């Protein structure tokens, strides 16, 4: 695929992630603005770290949801951490499910927590797949070239 065509496709994929509500436009753009020539894969590295760390947090939540009675304070603490991490990469749907989960913790709704957690895992996995493809195409396209660099 021609490089310009690939760049257009990457742009369309990115816009689609915003349009479908997977990514928060403002947060993801802020993350991209931190990327530069010295660290051209910054966004991908941050997202990779998020998913690596999220495995442990999701396991902690799953284990806590298996206990009886549920420790809503502990569950809320885990989800607070997860929500913050997902917010940092702009994972909009994941953040929304995290917020809902925390609301269920506040009122002691075990079934609501379990149901919301299943949806959160689906949204998290869907975003991960979409971002993997996005970053794969981005790596193929290579860094953007500029005609002249500032001194």
Description:
- The model is unreliable at 145-151 (pLDDT under 50).
- 77% of the residues lie in helices and 0% in strands.
- By secondary structure, the protein is an all-alpha fold.
- It is built from six helices and no strands.
- The chain has one domain (3-140): Four Helix Bundle (Hemerythrin (Met), subunit A), CATH 1.20.120.
Global outline: elongated
The count of DSSP E runs of length 2 or more, i.e. the number of strands, is 0
Main beta sheet, described? none
Question: At the fourth CATH level, what is the homologous superfamily?
Answer: HPT domain
Could you say what the CATH architecture is? Answer: Up-down Bundle
Give the H and E element order: HHHHHH
Beta strand %: under 5%
The domain count comes to 1
The class by helix and strand makeup works out as: mainly alpha
Intertermini distance: 33 Å
Number of helices: 6
- Averaged pLDDT: 92
Text of the CATH class: Mainly Alpha
Poorly predicted runs of 5 or more residues:
145-151
- Determine the CATH topology: Four Helix Bundle (Hemerythrin (Met), subunit A)
Helical content class: over 70%
Rg (C-alpha, Å): 18 Å
Key traits:
Four Helix Bundle (Hemerythrin (Met), subunit A), about 150 residues, two-component regulatory system, single chain
Describe the protein's topology.
Elements: H1 3-19, H2 25-33, H3 42-66, H4 72-89, H5 92-107, H6 110-141
Protein name: Histidine-containing phosphotransfer protein
Domain HPt: 39-134
Function: Functions as a two-component phosphorelay mediators between cytokinin sensor histidine kinases and response regulators (B-type ARRs). Plays an important role in propagating cytokinin signal transduction.
